[in-house]
Amino acid sequence: MKIYSNPSARNIKFALIFLGLIIGAGTLLYTNSLVKTLQDREKQVIQLFANGLEYIANSAEDYSDITFLMENIIQPINFEVILTDKDNNINLESKADFRNVKFDSTLSTEQLKDFFANKIIEIDAINKPIDVKYISETDTLILTKIHYGESELITKLKYYPYVLISVATVFILLGYLSFSQIKRTEQSNIWVGMAKETAHQFGTPISSLMGWIELLRINYNDPDKVLDTAEEISNDVEKLNKITNRFSKIGSKADLKPENLLNCLERITDYFKRRLPRIGKMVDLRLECDEKIVAMMNTELFEWVIENLIKNSLDAIEHENGIISISAKEIRNNIEIEVSDNGKGIDTKRRKDVFRPGYSTKKRGWGLGLSLSKRIVEDYHKGKIMVKSSAAGEGTTFKIIINKQV
């Protein structure tokens, strides 16, 4: 039987990383596109302002209305604008020559000159200044140079994708660390559960063997009883061997074959009926199944599921007159099997937890039994297992649905 591995977890990791890169790249490209659009619009506004000034400078007429219009054009500008002469000298006396520039008003004239000289170098590194020219028949002169920076919105948009990617990276890192911690905890629970489940699986045949050995000591002079006891011992040894084979199949691809369901269930119930008195349980184990029902199953693994449910019921029965009922019937293309008991029941809030690896309400066993049963039914037999009903003090019914023979 070949061992197979499930690469889905690794594929999911790669898919998440790839998706994260796509989202990050898309956010960066989209934001850069918005920034470029806003930069172009701001440049158009400044260029319009420069063209207006140049038009006025080259006209001999009075254009007070145009001047008013230009004031309205530049009024919405919310980024730094500085007007200088061709040598980058600023007139500090003219408040109209610098807009949206924050500075300390208590600075001296020399300090202000140094401040504006550095500010001009800073914003010229962002945008190339625009020259306002006077054009005559003989010469072209630069009257004014317009230096302009970027609006606060563009600055924020430039850093936005990096901030977003940084936050997302931190979030993914924290999620990955949390996921790793949860995974380690689950693995630890699985190891603990596997140890408990192994002990639980071996518990019944070993307890039975101890009882048969005691009978051998008592009846060693009676050949007939010795032979009967030896046969039961052989059955328990075979049971131990079957349990070992079951554990070896976990993680392997199980082969499904058409099997008579009644024969499978009878082997399990007969084994428990002969050994219930040896383990100190007075329980009526009942079976109801049509002898013609045939299902696609792996008998060794499926028997393990039924045994787990029976043992779970035995642990839940803490009183005399215990009853465990197993019934099976065909419904259309499916076979439905129910295992019921009159034990203490399961708390409504805990019904989903009973199939979780490592979950147990007892000091021994069942940290992994129902989880293994769920995997055997759903992963190997492509069926379903669930808690059909449960009530405190009244008992629990587990339901299994698998495909019948095609």
Structure described in brief:
The protein has 406 residues and is an alpha+beta fold. It has eight helices and eleven strands. Residues 1-6 have low confidence and may be disordered.
What does this structure look like?
- The protein is an alpha+beta fold and 406 residues long.
- The chain has two domains: 8-150, no CATH class; 182-403, Heat Shock Protein 90 (2-Layer Sandwich), CATH 3.30.565.10.
- 53% of the residues lie in helices and 17% in strands.
- The protein is built from eight helices and eleven strands.
- The chain has helices at 8-57, 64-74, 109-124, 152-218, 223-249, 261-275, 299-316, 369-380, and strands spanning 81-84, 98-99, 130-135, 140-148, 257-260, 283-289, 294-297, 322-331, 334-341, 384-391, 395-403.
- The radius of gyration is 42 Å and the shape is rod-shaped.
Number of helices: 8
Helix/strand order:
HHEEHEEHHEHEEHEEHEE
Biggest sheet layout: 5 strands, mixed
CATH-defined architecture of the largest domain: 2-Layer Sandwich
Domain count, please report it: 2
Unreliable spans: 1-6
Rg, Cα atoms, Å: 42 Å
Mean residue pLDDT: 79
- Fraction of residues in H or I helices: 40-55%
> Strand arrangement, largest sheet?
6-8-9-11-10
CATH class of the largest domain: Alpha Beta
| E-strand count | 11
Structural class: alpha+beta
- CATH T-level topology of the largest domain: Heat Shock Protein 90
* Strand fraction: 15-25%
Oligomer: single chain
Shape: rod-shaped
Distance between the termini: 24 Å
The CATH superfamily of the largest domain turns out to be Histidine kinase-like ATPase, C-terminal domain
